[in-house]
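To: structure desk
From: M.T.
Subject: fold request, one chain
Message: Could you run this one when you get a chance? Sequence is below, nothing fancy, just the single chain.
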Amino acid sequence: MKISNIKEFLNEIKTPNQLLNYMENNITYGFVGNNGKYYDNPDSDEWNDWYSVCYVQNAKQLLKSHIGICWDQVELEREWFSHNQFNYITIFIWFSVEHKNDYPTHSFLIYEDNNKWYWFENAFFDCTGIHEYNSKTDAINDIKEKFFSYAIENGWAKPEDKGLIMTNEYSKPKDNSTVQEYLNHVTNN
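Reply: Done. Structure tokens follow.
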């Protein structure tokens, strides 16, 4: 059952597990372009338009489109975890280089519950789920390792690139941020 109304969404989804189940079954990985087009095939030539046409959706927009990359999905997660008064943080991870590159990036949310930290993940396919850690530091370090391994396995990074990985906690971005506006916000650059 797809929900398009944020109020209904917040009332219907009661637990992190229900949120994950909803997102797994109703959110397609892709992006919405400022041209109104939905892009859901990363292997298509059209996906190359990402930098120039993609914008970051807020929670309400994602519930209407039901398509989003990790950047968008974290905004829906942020809305739900905030509404349910969890202690949570959103983090951006990337390879910090000063030149144009094809390194991956990722946004994710971790939250605290009963003195444990949990990585809530729907968009990093190999890691979909809710993962438990003893501390925030343990969570972030594990995610960094998985992110780096993923980049190596896909040929986007080399072993010597590990020192380039950076993480940054970030606040809610402004609505309809362009790719560059979003990157500036999440990297504090």
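Reply (cont.): The mean pLDDT is 95. Let me know if you need anything else for the meeting.
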